[in-house]
User: Fold this.
Amino acid sequence: MSRVAYVQGRYVPHQEATTHIDDRGYQFADGVYEVVAIHRGRLVDEQGHLDRLNRSLGELCIGWPMPPSALKVVMREVIRRNRIHNGIIYLQITRGIAPRNHAFPKTPESVTVMTARSTAPFDPDVKGVSVITIPEIRWTRRDIKTISLLPNVLGKQQAEEEGAYEAWMVEENGQITEGTSSNAWIVTVDGELVTRQASHAILNGITRLAVIRLATEEGIELVERPFSVDEARKAREAFVTSTTSFVKPVVRLDGDPVGDGEPGPLTRRLIEYYAAYLDDQDAA
Ligand code: PMP
Assistant:
């Protein structure tokens, strides 16, 4: 079946989906995006993603291309036209098309594109993955979900070249911010479940927020604070969260086993809760 993309008001064959070379996303990475999971035909945490999109747009003074209610309609249409049962929808809004000049265009008209594709359904029996650590080299507004992802791209490439799934970025003071496309979690040697608190230093992951809610509901104690590479090396368990990874156990860090080198019991519990949460999403 051929894929269909949405570009500025039109549904077009994916292969023919283009924007102008003067699109500021292309020239300046001047835009924002969201990736929303589709589980059994339903959008996962749609409102959370729209709220974060609203925040990203606001922080960069990019206008909404259409009311959120209309955007929701387009998202559903993209999912329907691509017949996605399990997959992801990618949605990008740039500041628009204008002659190249750093300052904002005088009458910006944001450009929206959306694509969707099928992915493997969530597998609660997920295997553990390896993570490497790399220096944090990004700007200091990582809370904004911009399409400016070059450091993330370089980090993920390094992970791939080293046979790892993800790279955790480490500040000069030794503290981990997050992964190149996921949030980082550990269960410390003392059994404390830790993930870094939301701030300008990390993207406040929608999956992260869901797992925080689930852990809290289940009475699992959780601490939101920075943690160091040293702590992570000694951790009993580690995992990552993201829209595309869901909750994924980390079993090796820089080549050394995390805990006993198997997905940990608390991680497995949280995966179970997350699986139930996915099945519980409202109808799209
Ligand atoms: N941090 C970064 C840098 C990311 O790119 C992502 C994925 N978009 C995440 C965290 C996880 O966010 P979410 O759970 O909303 O996918």
